[in-house]
Design a protein that fits this description.
This protein has one domain (about 55-215). The chain is about 75% helix and about 0% strand. It has 6 helices and no strands. The protein starts with a helix and ends with a helix. The mean pLDDT is about 80.
Amino acid sequence: MYLAGILLTFLLGGLIALVIRLELFTPGKAFLSEDRYNELFTLHGAIMTFLFLIPSIPAALGNFLLPVMLGAKDVAFPRMNLASFYLWVGGAIFFLLALALGGLDTGWTFYTPYSTTTSSTVIAATLGVFILGFSSIFTGLNFVVTINKMRPPGMTWFKMPLFLWSLYATSIIQLLATPVLGITMVLLTAEKMLGIGVFDPELGGDPVLYQHFFWF
């Protein structure tokens, strides 16, 4: 299911990319307005980054290859793995909702001040990233415990395949960095809905602080 869902989002992001390239290929203004072009560019970057690239290798492929390479029947917490998938589906629904509503032209990084416009589409996309962050945390915790506790007796750390090392390092990074991204999305949503000045310079916030949090 993980691979099938990620494949669907990849096809959706690829279709949006084809529309963008067709617009760029045509001289002058073709069939997309400036605002609609920015919206599609934002959705393409967000879908390919948060719905395909990040979950594809560490989550989807890891769920199949990690137990096989360890000689285990499954990961350490199968139910947590299922919860991670459902959270990913929830985040994808929020992004598709933003696609249906339109008006999301903040760029895939949701930078302030581009994202200071308070609208349902921006809030839906921000909450989608927040939910996807929980999915990454569950996946990272599951993989770390699986590699630590379910290795066969003869497989020491120095005999472990490089792919497992890459999954382990990626999972550690997810556990350290994703909570920062989640808190950033919560602050960004609170700023939009409650008018709290955190990142918006017009409200006394610091837009550079958002960039530090996002790229952490």
